[in-house]
Design brief:
single chain, about 110 residues, alpha+beta, three-stranded antiparallel β-sheet, about 25% helix
Length: about 110
């Protein structure tokens, strides 16, 4: 019985099922939470627009990291390596200051 997989029943509402597009994720953390803002940066838009925010515990963030790594390995085994267009390996961060003000507040 220990080898049996647990089944989880999930409800997927239609407005969530359609998903939302994101080509930018901004990750911040405190001692107790990781916050991931998913945004869309498109030509012609003055600044990225945050479409959704996930807040999770550090333990769940690490589980997400491991699940993504597992799925990326499976994807690349099936479809080939994902090309990051010359981005340095191991460094997926950037300086947010390069993108100008991201907040909606008044300019100083």
């Amino acid at each position: 019985m220990e080898n049996e997989k647990k089944q989880i029943s999930l409800d997927l509402k239609p407005e969530i099922a359609k998903g939302s597009y994101s080509n930018l994720a901004i990750i911040t953390h405190s001692r107790s939470e990781f916050i991931i803002d998913f945004a869309t940066m498109l030509p012609g838009l003055p600044k990225p627009e945050i479409g959704s925010r996930l807040i999770m515990t550090p333990e769940h963030a690490k589980r997400l990291l491991m699940a993504l790594q597992d799925n990326i390995i499976k994807y690349e085994n099936q479809f080939g390596l994902i090309d990051l267009d010359g981005q340095p390996k191991g460094g997926a961060t950037f300086n947010l200051g390069d993108f100008g003000p991201l907040g909606g507040g008044a300019k100083s």
